Structures
1.
Amino acid sequence: MNKIQVCTRCVMDTTDRDIVFNEKGICNHCLEFDANVDYRVLRGDKGKIALKAIVEKIKVKGRGKEYDCIVGVSGGVDSTFVAYKCKQLGLRPLAVHLDNGWNSELAVSNIERTLKKLNFDLLTYVLDWREFKDLQLSFLKASTPDGEVPTDHAIFALLLKIAKEKNISYIMNGMNYLTEASTVPSWSYGHGDWQYINYIQKKFGKAKLSKYPHYTTWDLFYMLFVKRLKFVSILNYIDYNKDEAMGLLEKELGWQYYGGKHHESTYTKFFQAFILPFKFSIDKRKIHLSNGIQSGHITRSFALEELKKSIYSEDQLVADKEFVAKKLAISIEKFEEIMSQPPKYYTDYPNSSKKYFLLKRVQYTLRKLGIFHR
């Protein structure tokens, strides 16, 4: 077995199949962060001035409309804080939530409690459980580490659909470059690839996805470049500190912490904390902690100590495994059989990655030129 090589600056390693290191042992994720951070993140007065200008454009564009923007909410800290900032900035967003059947009770109460205090309207779209359950099973059977793709794709498709229907030109999102700068395609690729998702379902699933929200690469191109829909990452314009944000949300809105990144979803917690490490040797804490190191929020020694901690207690793991299997309507034995299949990746199936990555490069270029928001 090949020895794992770890970046000398962050904690990313060769469990990322495509990672590369320079002569000093620093990985491509760190180098890309350094190359992009100054134009992706505006701190201090520069950020305030730029955000104020964007907010004025949103208000002007939204005059005479019921809502001037959309904000997606999950019950997590980032999306809740974005909603809070929208209120502070005097915006009139429609809050949108996708219910995929896996919300924790705490996530639901966070959404209800905070939006009531902010006095924002909430639109909740409930996925057809029969279809969605079958799609999640299809991704498990495909044996790829992309098990969260079905939810992420549906969320984005829903936001596009509502923006088009209600003629809303701005979507406020919780992307924060300082903590989410790096992506690892071999760990999770197909969020925007309907060809890939549809193929996985046709090959491994039983249900026809007649109600599942979806979009193609060309749908996205149309919304971005023809309809001029804009995504605004508010957190890239302010001095955002997640710990401070959680304290503020707890005090001002009664929001409660749920225990880990994206753990507001029971399935996401189980997938990231058990399936990925157990089957694929992928620990997504590495990329999250590495972004923290790159942004200066934490030290490398702190990150290494965090990675030594167990995510699950044995009792909780057994309980969650039983819960997930029961909700997916399969036996523990069937679940273990699926887990025993050899790992595969999106490159093993038909996909639209060439078009997808081309569109990403176009966005990258336009963003550097200041035409696209951060």
2.
Amino acid sequence: MRRAFGWLIRGVLVLVVLAVALGVWKREEITRLMAVNNLFAQDRIVANFSSMERMFLHRPMQAGTPVPLPRGPDVALPEGFDDWLQARNVTAYVVLRDGEIVAEEYRLGTAQDDLRISWSVAKSVLSLLYGMLLEEGSVPGPEVQVTDAVPALRGSAYEGATIRDVLAMSSGIRFNEEYLDYHSDINRMGRVLALGRSMDGFAAGQKQRETPPGTVWQYVSIDTHVLGMVIREATGRGIADLVEERLFVPIGLERAPYYVTDGFGVAFVLGGLNMTTRDYARLGQLVAQGGMWQGQQLVPADWLAESIRPQAPGGALYGYQWWVPDAAEEGEVFARGIYGQYVYVNTRAGVVIAVNSADRQFRAPGIHAQALAMFRAIADGL
């Protein structure tokens, strides 16, 4: 009996040692997974959205030589603006008129130099990069089949889809984008990222199709990752390297940004960009200027004009990774991310509005329409 008890104690000790060893070995993965589970908690969301580098693998980038945004005269903002800021848990906003800062505020304990998570605003940045590379012939054109451009996707649900289809979110794959459903595809993808697994493998593992490619618009974030795969396959380079070289260094950002990455160093291009609010406004100003920056045509004007017009099937108000407002006038477009991230551009008015938020009610009915109405009221008032 005594001997059996001794073996039992030894066995328990071995299990404890193994558990401790496993915890140390997998500590980073466990920490990231816990971060995902608590990322949007009410008491953490504001701080989390300005400190993603503490929770996820990431790839820093260079900012170039900073080019300060000029300061214009302060302007009055529309009635109800302060109430809207409070209701939507806005952490920062920057309003530009003709490239000058005319309104700016940092809220809820955040600061001007915070690097804030873009969420899906990053999709529009990838569209800019694709257009630049397309003009120089470095990437295949929109009519090329995705599986021809990226052989690793053969046998997946992307069979038959073109690059244009993924640009316009009409690939036809079956993908649940419900953020509040733990078991949804978008949340499974988040856990792939947190655990340091392969986003490319996750994309290639999509096997189910909802509709024939190119026939129905359905917003599925994995399409943007596939666009990133197309660019990486064609150029042999990472997206962070290309965005840094082709966009961020020439523009001259105020602070060096970074991308969240998977465990293989692949940038989370569909939502993992982190920048200051002023630098998001800079990207909007680039669009407002038709792709021109300090006398240099960075983004081809023809591509930009095409990408910010509705391109999705069925009359959906979606371009090439850009959103088009209802009843939009020429040159009115916006990038949009969950929890209240926006870069709104009104070319006619010469107005750009960048907003970062931590709005846990972002899916409530009418919330986006209220934001768009506020942006238009600001533009009209200037």
3.
Amino acid sequence: MAAPHPRSPTLDLLLPDEAATAALARRVAACARAGDVIALCGDLGTGKTVFARAFIGALAPGAESEEVPSPTFTLLQCYDREPAPVWHFDLYRLSRPDEVYELGFEEALAEAISLIEWPERMGPLLPADRLDVHLTYGETANARRAVLVGAGSWAARLDGLDHND
């Protein structure tokens, strides 16, 4: 799991079902802008891809039915969205942190919103200015807990996320 930032603002939320995870993703998407890094941390099945699909869908009104596949085998999927393109990285299969550069990570940082599943695979290359979304299993089969940790420009934006749709 990506290490949380010391003394960064934190938001701890209980998500009773997949719809609540998607609603959180839509709220985060409404705050996102070019150059943002959103690190999606959690074990298999905790909702990282659910979050990513809802985030990507929220930035394309009218295109909610567009297929958003998990980039597990391709490592990267790119989406033309507003206010910026979204680059959805799944780094589970990365062997070394520097392989992220072969995927165009520097270009993503310059012009896109980067959603990164398995960000810990980047090691020290993971930018410090980011939003960490830590997803864990909840008390019931469909429930999840989300702990959001904001650093840099995300620190001030976390306050606006602590409400329901």
